[in-house]
Amino acid sequence: MAGNVVGLAEIQRQVMWNRLIAVVEEQAQTMIRTAFSTTVREAGDLSAGIFDLEGRMMAQAVTGTPGHVNSMMESVGHFLKKFPAATMRPGDHYITNDPWLGTGHLHDLTVVTPAFHRGKMVGLFANTAHVIDVGGLGMGPEGRSVFEEGLYIPIVKCFAEGRPNETFFDFIRAGTRLPVELEGDIYSLCACNDAGIRRLTEMMAEFSLDGLAPLADFIFENSRRATEAEIARLPAGTFHAEIRSDGYDEEITLKAAMTIEKDRIIVDYAGTSPCSTRGINVPASYTRAYSCFGIKVVVAPEIPNNWASLAPFEMRIPPGSILNAPRPYPVSVRHVIGHLLPDLMMGCLCQTVPDRVTAEGSSCLWNPPLRGGASVSGPARGNRPALPDFEIITFNSGGTGARPTRDGLDATAFPSGVRTMAVEATENVAPILFWRKELRPDSGGAGRTRGGMGQVMEIGARDDREFACNAIFDRVKNPPKGRAGGKPGAGGRVALKSGRTLRTKGFQIIPEGDRLVLELPGGGGMGDPLSRDPAEVARDVRDGLVSPEAARALYKVAIRPDGTLDPSATETLRRANRS
Amino acid sequence: MPSSRLAVDIGGTFTDLALEHRGRRTTLKVLTTQAAPEEGVIAGVHAILAAASVAPREIDLVIHGTTLATNALIERKGARTALITTAGFRDVLAMRNESRYDQYDLNLVLPEPLVPRHLRLTVPERIDHAGAVLAPLDEEAVHALIPLLAREQVESIAVGFLHAFVNPVHEARVAAILAAARPDLLVSLSSQVSPEMREWERFSTTAANAYVQPLMARYLGRLEAGLRDLGLAAPIFLMLSGGGLTTVETACRFPIRLVESGPAGGAIFSAHIARQSALDRVLSFDMGGTTAKICLIDGFRPQAAKSFEVARVGRFRKGSGLPLSIPVIEMVEIGAGGGSLAHVDAMGRIAVGPESAGADPGPACYGYGGTRPAVTDANLLLGRYDPERFAGGKLPLDRTAALAAVNQTIGAPLGLPAEMAALGIVEMVDETMANAARVHAIESGKTYEGRTLIAFGGGGPVHACRLAEKLGISRILVPSGAGVGSAIGFLRAPVAYELVRSLYQRLSSFDVGAVNSLLAGMSAEAASVVAAGSFGAQVGETRTAFMRYVGQGHEIPVKLPARALGTDDVAGLRAAYDTEYARFYDRPVPGSDIEVLSFSVIVSTLPEELPPPPAIAPNGAAAVPAYVQSVRDTATGAVADWAVYPRIALHPGSRVSGPAIIAEDETSTLVGPGWTASLDGAGYLALVQEAL
Asked: Quick one: closest CA in A to B125, which residue?
């Protein structure tokens, strides 16, 4: 009987752990339903979690994007430092967008809310969301310090015991191009933490809990043990890799030395380029987020995110390097560099577990921030009509890297977890037109498995009037590399339709009568292209994704004039190439 | 309404039939004949008519639902289909929303588009968001495709142009050109199949319609002929995913609207019981062998949605299927059923499903060679089933096999005795269902407090009490005839048709004329579809606007009066929206304008008047148990003797106090500790939890 009592307690702890993950999932879903910014509701750029009284994350919503994995987790500690738990009251909500205390740029708001049960504080809920506008220069790399990048919100109370801090909301409304949306989003973030608290207190009543500490211990112990077990399966050693980014005005090197020990993984970024003068710098918490994601997706993908499951991953990031930019360096588009980190991590891991990693992919999102109207064209410069004012961003992706047994995904976000919006929806809210948005043939790197194809986008303003793009693109001069003999994917291209190449980063005008053409990178290939099944190559040729010329040159596959595979000519070609 | 109705629901394994003739109901299950489903139907119809001694010509109405369209999409056995689309947008079906449905699976698989790239054909044309033609249709380019269609042996064509839901002129022109050149080809236009904003969802729906159309048209033709040969003269109606019935002619034009009609029947079954029992707020819970389905029913109407996903490749994962924008009954399908398999995950936690033992080998206790523990094995070890009496004694259960499976996979690794491991499995599957139900409520802006759970399917009544406890629900209804619930639901379905159209409006600049003309057109179209099958029955009309604050994410449905709107109605619309919004999210957003994205019109025959269920004696006698079983309670872990009552031995008014089991051939109703059950006047088991 004693064994059964212990057994029941064990099972109930497991149930409560699952319930906690469900609670934070409800919290995230509430945010998606009520948010105003398209970045949250359409793109899913958000995160939600619950924390114990020491600020350690117990559970994180499955919904959301990896950039917030441990950046939001670290954030709660900063809130508790400024507002100790003893000073917190029911109905309080605290907020910040400080890139160094939150999730890396001013566009991410983090809200922390204490949870009370039977009059006693038992934990905290936190969430993070990417909002559309916080004033300043707007999303883009042009700022030379964080002060130019928008409204800076230190950790403050936005609601005190349920009452809005009207002075705070006055500042917020005055400091943004979209006051209704920003205020609505803050209300939504607070409401979603409230929803989490309601569910938590219901659970505590159901299981007769006074506090969360024993449950936290159970979660942390099991998570840590499971993560360490996965690390122990990896051959130990130190593995080096580097990756290059196009940078803003000069190329940037990211360097990593990954040491795998019995129960932890340490990444040292010594040798990484110093900070840039422009907003592509990365605060350390965001570096840790995408490094952790890159390791975890290979090493321990099934283990839920929490303080203990992330603890065995340690990052040593030289201060002043572009991966540990101090305040007040500009950081608005830190994702351009941050999104390369999983590729860098897999560059190390492929030396020890080559069958578990992917080739490099397009990786950093190719989101064109588009703007038009008076701020671009003047009220009526040269007496030409200007567009109505607009500011919009769509979330777009090139190809992902080839997988060990599968091709990369065509035009799909990785490592970011965001979704794109429908062209029809975008055209309904801004005076722009997409003239082309389809896959980009021959862009996926050749290999036994090929890289995912990039895409081509051609964007114009209504009546082909003047507009602007605040470019934040990468992988143009430094295309995604293949692995194990796979070829690189095609690099990206940013250009005017009339032909002139544009810079990959920075504010640029698309003149009247012209259009913006974006060719997004393809993913790298994996394995020798000559070992790819000729039937697969022929299928890609039939589908117009691989040209007959590329099939012949890269895969040594012969295609007949009618488009079908020529097996004997292929065999001859391949044999000639092997010998 | 016609007095003799016959319903036929084709499922994956069984074809269920339900016949109502002069107030008497007969039901029958026959095996589905996968290769030619109409053969099973015709054999079943023949058998049920014989069993009920009803002549074929006495049947007034045949109602039919089938998984054929769904299966064709899942198994990719539809027609060779081409898509003709706007130049520059060849890959809308392949690029989806550019995202992954699982952030942590590097080996993720996305569903292949129904139309391969070499059959996705583009022609120059462009219409803008307001419907203006920016580039005329290049008709030469359309003509130039015709030889290719022949060469590639294309059987069915989808046409999808950007913004065609605003201005369908180019799609219509392509249809006319194709009709002239190839009158044998079936053509689906996005502006007709799914006239709503968002190109991926619209093109996906149109492609799916084209993909299943030839198959469904042939099947329905054969079925109609077969039933006529049997001597049935009655009209045949098809069950729609939205819960209404339509004619064979409409079904042949828009066969995509037939997917998921079986589950829709289950929801209508629940809705009917709710109306009969005057239950305003219900959670329908149907748990079978591989999945559980839940549906919220308010005001006797299953929750409606405008879209869903079919053929998910990622094991019930949202985002892993093909999106369809059609009116549907909103249901959540959870990978949790009697056959769901349990394992221990990396964190040492018991996890259940979505992998299922299916029918072969089935749970270990079936004795067909299964060695991994399923939910049914765990229920058996907890003492919830009598191994000799399972499925009316037709499938004796092997307790030893269940014990071995649970011990080996769960008990030994976790150091738990088998009974506690079994408790863990059941508790975990109940928790999984409860969590999915909670998230669904959040997504729907609804709550569970005060709802009644209507539980059916083989597993529903077994798991209902614990699920209810986890959701804070204190009333449960277990209907009779639960094994053929969908077919019975078909008998209750109204003849109805729903149309959804996008028309962007802001309340601050609401164009009453444009909205009225759209709604009047939709109303006339829906009414004409319904008139073809309503035999002059009285119809009602429901109009809905899908509204949100400008810039906000999710639309909230707001009822409109079923008449032409006037400018003075706009203030009322705003007030109605604010009220609905505050009900969902606590606080309205001051100063925000409101936008309308789309409108829906439903024309439906009105439900029959239901006689109140016969009154029952107030002081029902306590029923007498047949025997007792030793059962372990999953909430407390305590073992006790639970009294077992055969359901057929209960009479209206009979009362049973928990803990107890009410056994029938198709399922067992568990009456947990603290619950009491009684048989009501309609023959349903009503379970109530005593106030704690």
From this structure: A435
Beta strand B452-456 with A120-130 is unpaired
Spatial distance between the Cα atoms of B234 and B228, rounded to a whole number of angstroms: 9
Q: What is the pTM of this model?
A: 0.93
Torsion angle (degrees, nearest 10) of CA A455, A461, A467, A469: -20
Is the pLDDT confidence value at B684 over 70?
Answer: yes
- The beta-strand segments (E) located in A24-78 are 46-51, 57-60
Look up tokens 């809905």; give the residue: B544
Cite the residue boundaries of each domain of chain B with CATH code 3.40.50. 78-207
CA B599 to chain centre: 22
Q: Residue written as tokens 């392949």?
A: B94
Query: What is the b/e burial string over A212-230, where b = at least 16 CB atoms within 10 angstroms of the residue's CB?
Result: beebbebbbebbbebbbeb
For β-strands B452-456 and B281-287, DSSP reports them as: parallel
DSSP state at residue B665:
S
By C-alpha distance, which of B11, B2, B540 is closest to B239?
Answer: B11
Task: State mean pLDDT over A105-120.
Answer: 96
Which CATH number applies to B495-605?
3.30.1490
pLDDT 10s digits, A198-232: 999 999 998 999 999 999 999 999 999 999 999 99
- CB contacts of B88 in chain A (<8 Å) are 434-438, 458
- Output the CATH code of domain B4-73+217-261: 3.30.420.40
The nearest CA of chain B is from the CA of A218 a distance in Å of: 10
CB-CB under 8 Å, B94 with A410: yes
Cα–Cα distance list, A320 to A274, A373, A424, A516 (Å): 6, 38, 43, 35
Structural domain boundaries in chain A:
2-225, 358-532, 534-578
What confidence tens digit (pLDDT) does each residue in A168-183 have? 999 999 999 888 889 9
**A114 by DSSP, 3-state: which?**
strand
Euclidean distance between CA atoms A108 and A74, whole angstroms: 14
CATH class of the structural domain B266-492+631-646+657-692: alpha beta
The CATH classification number of B78-207 equals: 3.40.50
Per-residue pLDDT tens over the stretch A294-331: 999 999 999 999 999 999 999 999 999 999 999 999 99
Asked if B549 reaches chain A (Cβ–Cβ under 8 Å), the answer is yes
What pLDDT shows up at residue A72?
A: 82
Residue B149 pLDDT exceeds 50: yes
Q: What tokens were used for A261?
A: 């020990």
In one-letter notation, the amino acid at residue B209 is N
Spell out which residues of chain A touch residue B438, defining contact as CB-CB under 8 Å.
22, 26, 199
